[in-house]
Amino acid sequence: MRKLYLILACCVGPAVAAQKPIVKYLSVPVAMRDGVRLSANVFLASEGARVPAILVRTPYGKGADIKPDHLAFVEHGYAVVVQDVRGRYESEGAFQPLTQEVQDGDDTLNWIARQPWSDGKIGMMGGSYLGIVQWKAALANNPHLKAIFPVVSGYDDYRDRYYSAGGAMKLGNRLEWMSENLRAPGYHQDFGQFVLHLPVRSADVAALGWTSPMYRELMEHPAFDGFWRAISTKEQLDRVRVPVFAVGGWYDNYVQSDLEAFAALRRRSGVNRVLVGPWAHNMSAPFETANFGADASVPVRALQLEWFDQWLMGRDSPLLSKPRVKIFVMGSNLWREAREWPPAEATRKLLYLESAGKANSLAGDGALNEKPARNPAADQFVFDPYAPVPTRGGAVCCNPKVFPWGPMDQRPVEQRKDVLVYTTKPMTHDLEAIGSVQAVLYVASSARDTDFTAKLVDVFPNGEARNLTDGILRLRYRNSLEKPELATPGEIYRVTVDAGVTGNVFRKGHRIRLEISSSNFPRFDRNANTGGAVEQAAKLVKASQTVYHDTAHPSCLLLMVMP
Predict the structure, then answer these.
(1) Is the pLDDT of residue 12 over 60?
(2) Which of 207, 237, 296, 511 is the most buried (most CB within 10 A)?
């Protein structure tokens, strides 16, 4: 190991009664199976004792000192290891995030277990990329890994980080993250410019100033094919045997995946836990645009300590005697506990689309009703990808100063002619929606391939239209993400737009609203409407879109609601 240092730990809260000497080893080389050395910092409460360890693996720089959050674990009796992942900061090798983290995580766990200060029991924690590497390490089924605590991370590369459940690319998320972390020294181009670059396949150069092999590789696989299946945690979840405590946020890009992972793991084990709050990717509350009350935050560090005490120190935690699911319900601004996800009491509620029935009616005149409209009806709009519907908040990532996130008033978007708006009458009683949100639509297009978007909105008595969740479907993926099928222009198709998940009470006097369009940019890339490879398109064309709604074509919004 490198030079040994002694420092005094500052107080980090009431749990720290007195200052204690902290031992730290900085920039320790950790050899991987291929000879590449990754750099790690090691922090210990004292020398001589063999203790369980907490591993944090990061692409953002491990730093040269202990962070307050990590210090709390050292004071609690853990060793803390913070490591730069391969190809980042002081670690050797090329940064290949799609493929490197399973083996590197496994090798690092084995290295920790061999150290004289380690008792062989290891947990992992961290958020975003630091959570992704936990899922990857868990796939190796390393005997030393006893528990993980991933935060705002998701568990599937295709559906979470690069594309969507409907097959469209998460353009803004991906390019913004790459620009923040991988761009050439001295190079800079504004986010608003590089997301417009065509073809999308070479947008890496616009964002980074260089050609990224990783980006070009994912551009070669727009469908969920064997490339993605081979690296997907979702597809290999049966290999994850360690207890998982996942934390997500309703306005985070990964929340649907966090909940799906818990639901899948629960079928095999009852020890896993999930918690979801009214947060964006940085876990902060309140937003400038919405305040969810004093109970909107939780002591995540305390939960982590309880979780690792249970699985690494053998101390019985009260966590295991509590319900497995804890979610914050917006609107009521209260926490709800449940044994499973989705809650067993949740039932389907359908709200059917209906036009205003007036010639030249405004897009916002549409209605959501309990029963399908009887008379044949349809709404039309033109989708011009050169003038797409702008993203306004929502579950985007990863810098709100560049790409704003969270709840925002959608009224400026709803004034557009290419956004169809359907709204219920004011609620006569509170309605609690918890679970998945889907728009089941009967649609036709002049294009062989195009997109349809759906957004769920809570309309306040003062008119504020607050977004809750949204999604997109690329028409070629209407039957599956694995086998794209082009459409026949003018033919009517029944499609389902997966609009994500939410937990929200529509209060008495509020209204439920559904927005339908064909773009949400730059959250998702723009469809060229040509039927060709979207990522290679240098020219975009308009598409004429029709949404049908009557007894023969009962387009509807599908919510899961509590009794």
Answers:
(1) no
(2) 207
Q: Which of 478, 470, 471, 420 is nearest to 449 (CA)?
A: 478
Q: Above 70 in pLDDT, residue 285? A: no
Three-state SS at 418: coil
Helix (H) or strand (E) holding 471: strand 465-474
pLDDT bracket for residue 460 (50, 70, 90): very high
The question of whether 281 is a catalytic residue gets the answer yes
Nearest to 499 by CA among 246, 165, 250, 220: 165
Pairing state of beta strands 21-31 and 4-8?
A: antiparallel
Which residue in 70, 76, 281, 553 is the catalytic one? 281
User: Taking 90 as the threshold, does the pLDDT of residue 126 lie above it?
Assistant: yes
Tokens of 421: 């708006």
For residues 189 and 207, the answer to whether their CB atoms sit within 8 Å is yes
- CB–CB of 407/287 below 8 Å? yes
Provide the b/e sequence for 149-183 (b: ≥16 CB within 10 Å). Answer: bbbbbbbbbbbbbbbbbbbbbbbbbbbbbbbeebb
State the CB neighbour count (10 A cutoff) for residue 202.
17
φ and ψ at residue 160, rounded to 5 degrees: -100, -50
- Token pair recorded at residue 34: 């291929």
Beta bridge partners of 543: 383
From the candidates 39, 91, 118, 128, which is the catalytic residue? 128
- CA 319 – CA 305 distance, rounded (Å): 11
Among the listed residues 252, 258, 379, 470, the single catalytic one is: 252
| Cα(386)–Cα(537) distance, integer angstroms | 13
Residue 497: name the closest of 470, 468, 516, 472 by CA: 472
pLDDT of residue 19: 60
The helix or strand, by DSSP H or E, that contains position 228, with its residue range, turns out to be helix 226-231
How far is 80 from 510, CA to CA, in rounded Å? 48
**CA-CA distances (angstroms) from residue 444 to 284, 438, 518?**
41, 18, 12
pTM for this prediction? 0.94
The answer, yes or no, to whether residue 8 has pLDDT greater than 50, is no
CA angle 509/423/347 to nearest 5° reads: 80
Cα torsion through 328, 331, 334, 338, rounded to 10: -50
- Using only the alpha carbons of the chain, give its radius of gyration: 25
Cβ atoms of 296 and 312 within 8 Å: the answer is no
| Separation of alpha carbons 218 and 373, rounded Å | 43
Helix, strand or coil, per DSSP, at residue 304: helix
Tokens representing 410 are 């959608």
Tokens representing 134?
A: 């936990």
Per-position DSSP letters for 127-185, written without gaps between them: ETHHHHHHHHHHHTT-TTEEEEEEES--S-IIIIIIB-TTS-B-HHHHHHHHHHHHPPT
